[in-house]
Write a structure and sequence with these properties.
By secondary structure, this protein is mainly beta. The chain is built from one helix and eleven strands. The protein has a single domain (2-141), classed as Jelly Rolls, CATH 2.60.120.10. The chain has one helix at residues 2-17, and strands spanning 35-43, 50-59, 68-70, 75-82, 84-88, 95-98, 102-105, 110-111, 113-116, 123-132, 139-141. The strands form three sheets. It has a five-stranded antiparallel β-sheet. Strands 8-3-11 form a three-stranded antiparallel β-sheet, with no helix packed on it. A hairpin with a 6-residue loop joins strand 5 (84-88) and strand 6 (95-98). The longest helix has 16 residues, at 2-17.
Length: 143
């Protein structure tokens, strides 16, 4: 148990202490009712110039992110931890993902819809980025 606590502490410390690409992602909001919190960041040793960055996105009931794009180099794996998330990537149809389901975004994708599908229950999403290490802004609002 002590080993697990120590490992968890190290993972949390690493997630809070990372710099560069994820430094811009201290707990912040992307829109009307979401909170983005850093979870993990680490350079990928066998892929020079690439990093793995994870963030948690919390949505209160009815919360949403503004339409956005991500870093042009970013491949994103998104996993719904709790609740349900409505998402639309590029020109694909909007889809509702429930806890335990996942989706992905190819580099250069537009993300016009990302919101809590429920008006009564909170939702949480884990977004994992494989991104160029020198990309500082992971998310940019669409104009």
């Amino acid at each position: 148990m002590k080993r697990q606590r120590t490992l968890l502490s190290l993972v949390v410390a690493a997630g809070m202490a990372f710099s560069g690409v994820a430094a811009a992602h201290g707990a912040e909001t992307l829109g009307a009712g979401d909170v983005v919190k850093p979870n993990f960041s680490h350079a990928i040793q066998n892929s020079p110039g690439k990093s793995l960055v994870a963030v948690e996105v919390f949505y209160p009931p009815g919360g949403a992110s503004l339409p956005h794009t991500h870093a042009k180099s970013a491949f994103i794996y998104a996993y719904v931890v709790s609740g349900s998330i409505a998402s639309k990537v590029n020109d694909e149809p909007e889809h509702i993902y429930k806890a335990g389901e996942a989706f992905f975004e190819e580099p250069g994708s537009r993300h016009p819809v990302n919101r809590n599908a429920s008006k009564t229950q909170p939702a949480k999403l884990l977004a994992v980025f494989v991104v160029d290490s020198n990309d500082k802004e992971l998310t940019t609002p669409l104009k």
